[in-house]
Amino acid sequence: MDKEDLLKKYFKQTLSEQEQKEFYLLLDTDSDFKVMFEEYSDFNLAFKSHEAEQLKDFLKSIDDQPKIKKTVWYKTPLFYYSAVAILIIALCVPFLMRPSADSLYNDYFDTYPNVEQPIVRGTVKNSAYNAFDLYENNRFVEAAQKFEVILKDTNNSNLRFYYAMSLLNSSQYDLAQIQLSELDQQDFDYKDETLWYLSLILIKKKQTQEAITKLKELDKSNSPFKSKERKLLLQKL
Prior knowledge:
The chain is mostly helical. The protein has two domains: 3-98, no CATH class; 107-236, Serine Threonine Protein Phosphatase 5, Tetratricopeptide repeat (Alpha Horseshoe), CATH 1.25.40.10. It has twelve helices and no strands. The protein has helices at residues 3-11, 17-29, 31-64, 77-97, 101-108, 127-136, 140-151, 157-169, 173-183, 191-204, 208-220, 227-236. Helix 5 runs antiparallel to helix 10.
């Protein structure tokens, strides 16, 4: 089952026995899932605390009002209690159902493959070869350093894209955003990919409207890259 669905069912207390086993297994073994759970828990607790305080004040104001002899059904305390309860549920559910910025980023981010200079037998070994070799072996910090050195001597947009990917895969989001924003102004081989990963960074930084703009820009290009993912992601933002 999808992790977000598990979280939603947990807070709604509708997990089946099998789903409970899956939930607690993920909580013990999946660090990303644990972070998502803690974020949902913190928000749920804060929201309930805030609403409980407001409810307490509201009910107190009702009790302090002068009593009247003629009782109208829609002015009874029971009516007010029910109305407030419905209001709290209506306000709370959308927030609990909405995935966090980090969870959206983690769900849709994947490492872009090396299609620029695949490391195969017989490839001429040069500085670019070494950078891509590190990239393919998930040594992204070292790969970023290699690409940075190369880019001092040549302004190759394709190499700059992989420099940005190396930064992004090593969680250097601000630096990756700078590189991708520069590439966003250019027409080159990885233009569509640049828009996609730039939008993910904006989502992670909770700059939702800017991310939507980039995703719609990608839609306008009629690019097949991540077309299904784009549609689903836009629905969740």
